[in-house]
Amino acid sequence: MSILLVAEHDNATLNDATRAAVSAAKAIGGDIHVLVAGSGAGDVAKAAAGLDGVAKVLHADAEVFAKPTAEALEALVVPLMANYDVLMAVASTTGKNFAPRVAAKLDVMQLSEIVAVESADTFVRPIYAGNAMMTVKSSDAKKVITVRPTTFEKVGDGGSASVETIDAPAGPFKSQFVSEELSKSDRPELTAAKIVISGGRGMQSGDNFVLLDKIADKLNAAVGASRAAVDAGYVPNDYQVGQTGKVVAPELYIAVGISGAIQHLAGMKDSKIIVAINKDEEAPIFSVADYGLVADLFKVLPELEEELTKAGL
Amino acid sequence: MKILVPVKRVIDYNVKVRVKPDQTGVDLANVKMSMNPFCEIAVEEAVRMKEKGGVDEIVVVSIGPAQAQETIRTALAMGADRGILIQTDETVEPLAVAKLLAKVVEEEAPGLVILGKQAIDDDSNQTGQMLAALLDWPQATFASEVVIDGGKASVTREIDGGLQTIAVETPAVITTDLRLNEPRYASLPNIMKAKRKPIDIKAPGDYGVDIAPRLSVVKVTEPAKREAGIKVESVAELVDKLKNKEGVI
Ligand SMILES: Cc1cc2nc3c(=O)[nH]c(=O)nc-3n(C[C@H](O)[C@H](O)[C@H](O)COP(=O)(O)OP(=O)(O)OC[C@H]3O[C@@H](n4cnc5c(N)ncnc54)[C@H](O)[C@@H]3O)c2cc1C
Ligand SMILES: Nc1ncnc2c1ncn2[C@@H]1O[C@H](COP(=O)(O)O)[C@@H](O)[C@H]1O
């Protein structure tokens, strides 16, 4: 068995989600090669070569991979798959974008966002917003898999794989990167943070998110949101936690002014400890919360900030 | 330009899903079904483009059981012009859906195909990308804004870090994200009008596509249940629990 795993990165650093994908690849077993497609991403290739369990790194360096389009990644990966049994990618917006193109070209059915590996051909994946878990067995000769990073351990360092430079496809491609508007934040990334504090429609405005920011700063937490808060324009789209947003599984998730619709729960119910702050004691969020506080958030959040200070945070 | 919009009939997003005791799937008997919300957004976008001008026809296509006609009618009531139902009671996986859609594209020659980014039943998020690959077309997935300008589309996409804008040549495949638009409710007169719009009924065999599944379901189970915990009386108590009992802060 040989596995080609596409690294998740921003050309400067290797994203930790890649480490989780390597775990999933190890569970399948076989030689694991990591593909780094980037522009000036030499450091990423080096970091990938150091991952525990990685046998080899393939490094394709080209301008088009600075912000890779699905078309360019397809052109790079499809020919490589002649030598591999499995393509694995992180279920990020990058992985979700290109992996199905590769699957279609290989004429195989993709296994989306797996959360467990049962054997080399059998996997578990959530369906219906995580309200059911489906175990599926693939009959395809080659497998294309995306991995939900929050459910796999992150491998550490300790490998010393060789890095092989490979050619990038020439193009031209029918799609082009134009621009990007990335949310800037000094806080940890939502999917990687140990603590997440999220606000919902109950926050009433984007300005009120400052109340969450202050607590996030004390706890070194990331700030997230429900769809309703994003739709209302309180916060940018990349804050959205849920079935159709980001899936998080931190040590501590604090839901503030969020009712707990199934689509929201889908994105956070695997968190270790869940705290809900809501003024409606009937809110469904309380049915998954380890600690519930029935109260007005505008009264409670300043108090929480104060108590955290008292507790030495 | 013609726009093709594939729409899927799925369990209504408000329904609480129940796993069957024999672990073969989820219980769909007597459960409310609706158009996949992302497909509604796709239909709405196509209708808005037509209202702006430059679009002559919107064709909706669904692959599914006879009842998927209702889903197509909903799209027709929102403003689409005609429908195609590729009727089957079998489960059709995204790969086979994409192959069928590729055949429909060959016949219909649309300038754009707009799909939902994800069906909320299988949560696959694959079909649009697969279709684009099969056609060798460019794709713009997870769209929150689409501007068509001559032979190009400028599409803003919702990505993990924020927003990204790409330019794609048309014909192209676009998949919709939540913020692209707010779908309209069909008015009563439009619902009546939709009853007279044509729906072609086809079978997968008419397209010569093999729809045999590649994945076999071993079992479908309930996810691990979370028990509700306790209610705390004060913020001080909460902080104490998190710090001293759970050690998470
Ligand atoms: C296709 C589809 C995909 C979706 N994907 C997602 C997704 O990925 N993520 C997601 O989150 N949602 C998603 N949704 C939306 C979801 O169904 C809910 O509409 C949404 O999660 C509700 O957000 P909310 O809890 O912030 O708002 P509401 O349901 O309006 O809840 C607001 C809560 O705030 C509380 N509140 C108000 N004021 C105060 C106060 N002063 N103090 C304390 N509490 C207060 C209220 O009691 C209430 O419980 C999706 C829906 C669809 C159809
Ligand atoms: N059976 C189907 N009939 C029509 N369109 C479909 C079907 N299945 C998927 N699609 C389209 O593909 C999108 C993504 O679905 P999926 O890849 O299954 O998550 C949906 O929003 C639809 O636009």
TrEMBL record, chain A:
Keywords: Electron transport, FAD, Flavoprotein, Transport. It holds the Pfam family ETF. The keyword Flavoprotein applies. InterPro entries: DHS-like_NAD/FAD-binding_dom, ETF_a/b_N, ETF_a/FixB, ETF_alpha_N, ETF_asu_C, ETF_asu_C_CS, Rossmann-like_a/b/a_fold. Residues 3-181 form the Electron transfer flavoprotein alpha/beta-subunit N-terminal domain. Gene3D superfamilies: HUPs, TPP-binding domain. Belongs to the ETF alpha-subunit/FixB family. This is Electron transfer flavoprotein subunit alpha/FixB family protein. It comes from Hyphobacterium lacteum.
From TrEMBL, chain B:
Residues 23-211 form the Electron transfer flavoprotein alpha/beta-subunit N-terminal domain. It holds the Pfam family ETF. Keywords: Electron transport, Transport. SUPFAM superfamilies: Adenine nucleotide alpha hydrolases-like (SSF52402). It comes from the Bacteria. The keyword Electron transport applies. The keyword Transport applies. Belongs to the ETF beta-subunit/FixA family. This is Electron transfer flavoprotein subunit beta.
